[in-house]
Every structure is written in C-alpha cells, then in structure tokens.
C-alpha cells in the first residue's frame, strides 16, 4: 500500500463544501484559540461563538447527545432540559473545566450585572478531552485570562490542528487536535449550511480509516514494536455542529446523534474509556432571555432532515481528517512526542483520487 499525504484531506461524500470549508461558513459563527506551548505545558483553550451578540440575552436553540460518557463536561444537564445555548462553547483539557466555567460566569456577569440577583444564573458550557500524554495536566496551566484571550481572538478565519484546546491532543497515536468542515445542502426547496468543529483526541493507530481505506493497519504494522498501538481506546472527541437551518432543540439533538456515523467511519468504536459528545445548534433565530413568548420561524419538518443528517455525518468525518492533516508534530511532557500524520506517513497514496493504489 502506497499513499501520498497531500496538503489537504480527501473530500468526504458527495455534498459540496461551503466557501471556506469551515464551521464559519454558517454565518455569524466565530472560533478563537489561546495556545499554551511551553515545554511540558502543551494545552490551550478554544471557544466557539454562535453570534456576535450577548448570548445570555439572545440565546440560540441547541441540544447535545452523549455517545459515550467518559467525560467531565459542565452545562449538559441544563442544555438538555432547556434546549438553549447562553454562553460561548469552551473547549480545553479535563482539569481546566472548572476554571473555564468560572471564566464564563464572570464574563456573563460583567455583561449582565444582575445575573444571579435580579436575573437567573447563567449556564456555562465547557467540554473537555484529556491531553495528559503531551501536556502536564497536573500543572493546571489554563487560567481565566486564557479563556478571555480565546474569546478576543474569535474570528471566521481561524487556525486548526495543534492549536488552542487541540495543542496537546492525540488521535490514532498521531497528533490530533482541532478540525473543521462544512457542507451545503438542499432541504424543503431551500439551501442551508452545516458546519462542524471537532476536538479530536481518540483512536488507536490500527483503527484509522481514511475515506473508507483502512490505512491504519499498514501504519500499525510498520510500528509493530510500539506497544501503545495495542492499548485499549481511551481517548475522546467533542463534535460541535452549527447550521443555519431553522430547527428546534429536539431536531438538533437528532442532527447531533448523526455525528456518530461520521466518527465511526474514521475507525472509532467509542471505547469504554472514551468521552464522545456531540452538540448541535442553529443560528436561524434567537430566543430573547426576557421574552414572555417566542415567535419562531417556520421550522423544517422532520421528513426534510435527511440532508442535514448526511451533512452532519460527512462534516464530522471530514473535520477529523482535517485535524489530522492540519496538525503539526508536538513534543511535550517527559519528552513524549506525537508525530503529525504527514510526517509519520509521508508515503500515503493520493487519496484525492478516491482510493489506494497498490
């Protein structure tokens, strides 16, 4: 098997990408990073903002699903109950969850001083993966200032790979991290965009499947002396889906569930020790915090959701590959190294042609 790893990952599926091929193709969505790169500290923060306004005042419909629950997130319970997102979404390492939740609360209170007094409390939303192989997670290096820096850096034009929350993450015994993708669909006679952002930190090398090709088996055979490839799956992935299609929280949960299909196609079996969580939100409308009623736009009928299901699965598969292609080799704690895919396998066949050439 001979494979050449090009500059970009192969295009997954038949749906076209949006203009930039990122989650920011959903209008208003921005992503920001703060990266910590200092010897044994290899970690960071990534934030996703659904719109430029005050999310506490103008919430967006959202929902999440837990595919495998080995995780330490904050905010999922209220998200499930109320179906709205009211802070930026924060991503980081496992031990940073409490710090980031506090940072989200402080930021919300600064913008709305009556939160927790004349107003209800705010629901912070933080997701995590364990970057402890490369990062000295016990250093508790992530601070509130890093959350604020990531928010300040939020843009429609953002980096991927070994940046922000993805700095210390591993996938398939290679360097993982931040990946993104988008797809354009037609539903009920209208055009909509679906985008994905992933924090990829999962998989054993023999599992790696790229556009249906089990390339990880060959790579694992070359690394047969590496016992790490025989260890059980213990990683995690956070999958965030954005769309401009008018959906309610129940429908968004259905879209979030389809991310598991894209995840599985890369080789994941959602192992016992994995934390695989998906969240989907819509930017088609907002829900005012202080409204007594909500005037919703016409929502898509459930019978029209199949194109969005396909886009969600394809976007996640594409975003995982984007994380692998975008990542750069990182050396971290105790000399541990994760090689970038393009460095570990410089002879991968040109997958853009759709197959492997023997």
TrEMBL record:
Q: Which domain of life is it from?
A: Bacteria
Which Pfam families does the entry mention? Peptidase_S58
UniProt-listed InterPro entries: ArgJ-like_dom_sf, Peptidase_S58_DmpA
What the record says about family reads: Belongs to the peptidase S58 family.
Source species: Paraburkholderia guartelaensis
List the protein's name. Answer: P1 family peptidase
CDD domains to which the protein is assigned, alphabetical: DmpA
